[in-house]
Design brief:
Distance between the termini: 53 Å
Number of strands: 14
Oligomer: single chain
Radius of gyration: 53 Å
Structural class: alpha+beta
Strand content: 15-25%
Shape: elongated
Number of domains: 3
Number of helices: 9
Largest sheet: 7 strands, antiparallel
Helix content: 40-55%
């Protein structure tokens, strides 16, 4: 199924069906157990009534067992012989023996005149207890299920077995039954009602789930349509509708709009990057072409030094653009262990043609190791020194020190400094606060942007600040090696 609504409706229906079936089985089991216990209680009462008569030595043929159809009774002696049964009992099962024909038993109570004489004696001694009288067992009766045929009708019964001892010491067992027909009818009625109502319940659940899911997913369909329209029109300024609710769908819509905002900003930034790069490339290319054309027409007027400078400027700009492209593509920094102090010394030692000498302050080797790409970190240090050389008046200083679990490189100059309002903007690409001077000196506004990007990808940071009354201070911090 490709529809979420259909899957939700089917899943809810299956879960409810399983729950209803489980609950129905539990109800049926509890109902059957309760009704069976009630039948067992009725059977126990009937068995104890008959056992009480046996304890009083009532003759077997004089036992009052009530209606044989409601409570069939079977009495057995210690040897399992049937000594008495209720009236019209034709067959029985579940009591230990299926015999229904009484057999003579020793020590049976006497009948006839002796019975009358005993009754007279009992009347005379009614005020005193007879030490030879029998008793009914007080133990928990034994229960079992079986069948009995009474007057041609066969039915299921719950049997209770109770023991009784007569005055002669003979232990007899009374098996009395209670019909289970009511229990069977009740269970069948409830089962039928459940089976008839289950399809209706499942249809209602499926329908309600379908409608509720459809209503809940309506905003999702609106988001999908708007996203399809944005894709078709390529208009990233459009946004998907945000529901007024505070549920997951509303959060999805807000997240989608945030993604569209970030994507729009990324595309705009990419377009500006391409436009700025084209503009920066156009100036040195035009200058170089002009010089070459003049040289071709008038060789004596060829400005070789200017042509070389423009070529170098093009080479540097191309290298910067290539590095930015690799960084934007997600290039990961290396994992080499590097001594940042040694890198700074090496970079400064190679800058023999700088306009202003650089003062270096690096502590003794040790504790200045970082992990990263040697080429990229050298590029960061070089860009910071280039920036300081471009704006300094008489001094440029570099200090390397261990700081807060990492290594800090601080580059200061005594130039005009950076206005506080512009200290974040200078790290944007192609941003130059003094366009004329930057253009004359060959700057394209990419050095500081590359430096901050590389610092961030190494887990560090690059910040700008003032250097006292005059000048600028750039601080690079990188986490130490572990």
């Amino acid at each position: 199924m490709r529809s979420v609504r259909a899957r939700a409706a089917l899943g809810a229906t299956v879960v409810v069906a399983l729950a209803v079936v489980a609950a129905g089985l539990a109800v049926l089991l509890v109902l059957r157990a309760n009704l069976t216990d009630q039948a067992g209680l009725q059977a126990e009462v009937a068995a104890r009534e008959t056992a009480g008569q046996l304890a009083l030595d009532v003759p077997y043929d004089k036992l009052e067992t009530g209606d044989g159809e409601d409570h069939p009774v079977q009495v057995t002696d210690e040897d399992g012989r049937v000594v008495a049964v209720s009236e019209d009992l034709e067959a029985i099962s579940g009591t230990g023996t299926d015999r229904v024909t009484p057999q003579p038993s020793p020590a049976a109570p006497e009948t006839g005149d002796d019975d009358r004489d005993r009754d007279d004696d009992d009347d005379d001694d009614a005020a005193s207890a007879d030490p030879g009288r029998g008793e009914v067992s007080t133990d928990e009766p034994h229960f079992s299920n079986g069948t009995a045929t009474v007057d041609g009708d066969r039915a299921a019964y719950r049997f209770a077995s109770v023991e009784a001892t007569n005055s002669a010491g003979l232990t007899l067992t009374v098996h009395a039954g209670a019909p289970l027909a009511a229990e069977q009818r009740a269970v069948a009625s409830v089962r039928g009602a459940m089976l008839a109502g289950l399809p209706v319940v499942l249809l209602v659940v499926a329908g309600v789930t379908w409608l509720v899911t459809r209503r809940a997913l309506r905003p999702v369909e609106g988001i999908r349509r708007e996203m399809a329209a944005i894709t078709a029109s390529e208009d990233l300024s459009r946004r998907v509708p945000e529901p007024a609710s505070r549920d997951e769908i509303a959060r999805l819509a807000r997240t989608t709009n945030e993604t569209l905002t970030a994507l729009e900003a990324s595309v705009d930034r990419q377009r500006r990057f391409v436009a700025d790069a084209s503009h920066e490339l156009r100036s040195p290319i035009a200058s170089l072409r002009t010089q070459l054309e003049v040289g071709a027409a008038h060789p004596e007027l060829l400005d070789v030094a200017g042509a070389v400078a423009d070529t170098v400027r093009l080479q540097v700009l191309a290298a910067d653009l290539l590095l930015l492209a690799r960084l934007d593509a997600g290039e990961r920094p290396g994992n080499a262990r590097l001594d940042l102090g040694a890198l700074v010394r090496e970079e400064v030692s190679q800058r023999v043609g700088d306009r202003i000498p650089v003062t270096v302050s690096v502590p003794e080797p040790g504790g200045l190791e970082v992990t990263g790409s040697r080429g990229q970190l050298v590029r960061v240090i070089g860009n910071l020194l280039d920036n300081a050389e471009r704006h300094a008046e008489s001094s440029v200083a570099v200090e390397v020190r261990a700081e807060r679990g990492g290594v800090a490189v601080v580059v200061t100059d005594d130039g005009a400094g950076v206005p506080e309002a512009e200290r974040e903007r200078i790290f944007e690409r192609f941003v130059r606060l003094d366009d004329a001077r930057a253009r004359d000196d060959g700057g394209a506004g990419l050095g500081l942007a590359i430096a901050r990007d590389v610092a961030g990808r190494h887990g560090g940071r690059l910040t700008a600040a003032g250097a006292g009354e005059r000048g600028a201070r750039f601080e690079l911090w990188l986490p130490g090696s572990r």
